[in-house]
Structures are given as structure tokens and as C-alpha cells.
Amino acid sequence: MNPKLMKETIAELIGTFILVFIGGFSVVLATTPANNVNILVPAFAHGLAVIGIIYTYGHISGAHINPAVTVGLLVGGKVTAIKALFYIIAQFIGSILAALLIVTILGSNANVGETTGSLTANNVWQAALFEAVLTFFLVSIVFQAAVYGKAGNVAGVVIGLSLTGLILAGGAYTGASLNPARTLGPALVAGNLEYIVPYFLGIFGGGAVAGLFHSTYMKS
């Protein structure tokens, strides 16, 4: 691995770690009965974390911090296959490490901030479809705001606040992961992998379709 790709990959690992750590704890907070909080907490926690990560690591790696974004950019011809592979591996590693640290701090894996909602247990394929649609929206925003530069210097803010809105829309139903790494780490550490395949198909599918659509029909 050349030094530039190594630095980019490390940035993706750290950025994804930060997102899953902050996002996971926000979900733990929101789903602890005694705290009496709601979906606003994880929605804004994820969105604000993404804004910070983009402006911290975006100049190094692009701050994908999401395998679905990386796949969307790969399909759209914006990253090479080798870079996408290293990024996705790093993103998954960062996610798992973050979930392990959450368990270490809390002393239990009963609640590590999994991305699940009311549809997950009984209607997992409907949940996966919802995740696909929301991920399509997210990757579309990434393409237009950041890849095509339409949001300029505030692209990070646009992406982060858009993610907040998407989580507000879907969080109660699916957990609004929109990110395979955000889903895998907590699910793996919690020992609950039953919904992983549908979620992965939905999230990766939504990202790939967005990448194809915007690189083919929405170039600017």
C-alpha cells in the first residue's frame, strides 16, 4: 500500500470509528427508558458527528465513512476498486472497534446502539427497502453536494444535516442506518445478525443505484 492510500485508509477507519461510537452511544441514550429522550438525540448526534468528521478528514480521504457511499462512488467511477476495497475494510474495522469500546465502557452488550426499529423484527424486508430508499437519498446528496461541488465549502453541513433529516424520517422504523458499517459493528458485538443480509442488500443497493444514476444522468 502506498503512503497516500495508507493515510486515506487510516482516516476512513478513524472517521467511521467516531461515527459509530458517537452514534451508538446516542442510540443507547435514546433507548434507555429512564432517560425519556427520543429520536432527536441520535438524529442530531449522527448528523453533527458527520459534519465534524467531514471537515476533519474530508481533505485526506473524502470522509466516506460509509461503505454504501464508497460503493456509490465506485459505481460512479469516482474511486478505484483497490481504494474502495481498502476503504470498506477500514470502515468495517472502525465500526467493530467502536462497538467493542461501547461494550467495554458500558460493561454489557445488551444495548450497543444497534440500527433497528419497529419494522426490523417483523418486516425486515420492508425495513431493508426503506433503508435502500433513504440510502439512495443520502448518496445522491453526497454526489451533488460534494462530488460535483454544488454546495461548495458547506458540503459537509449539507450532508450532515441531510443525514439528520433522514434519520428523523426513518429512525423509528429501521434505525435509519444508511451505512453497512454503522449496522455491522453493533450487530456483531451484540450477537444479533438476523437482519444483516436484508439491510446490506438494501443499503448497498441504494448506494449503488444512486452512484449509477447520478454519474450517468445527473452529471454536472
What does this molecule look like?
With 220 residues, the chain is an all-alpha fold. 73% of the residues lie in helices and 0% in strands. It has helices spanning 3-30, 40-61, 67-75, 81-106, 124-147, 155-174, 180-190, 196-216. The model has no long low-confidence stretch (mean pLDDT 94).
Strand content: under 5%
For the record, the count of structural domains works out to 1
Describe the largest sheet: none
Structural class, please?
Answer: mainly alpha
Brief digest:
The chain has 220 residues and is mostly helical. It has helices at 3-30, 40-61, 67-75, 81-106, 124-147, 155-174, 180-190, 196-216.
Q: How would the blueprint of this fold be written?
A:
Elements: H1 3-30, H2 40-61, H3 67-75, H4 81-106, H5 124-147, H6 155-174, H7 180-190, H8 196-216
Features:
220 residues; Glycerol uptake facilitator protein
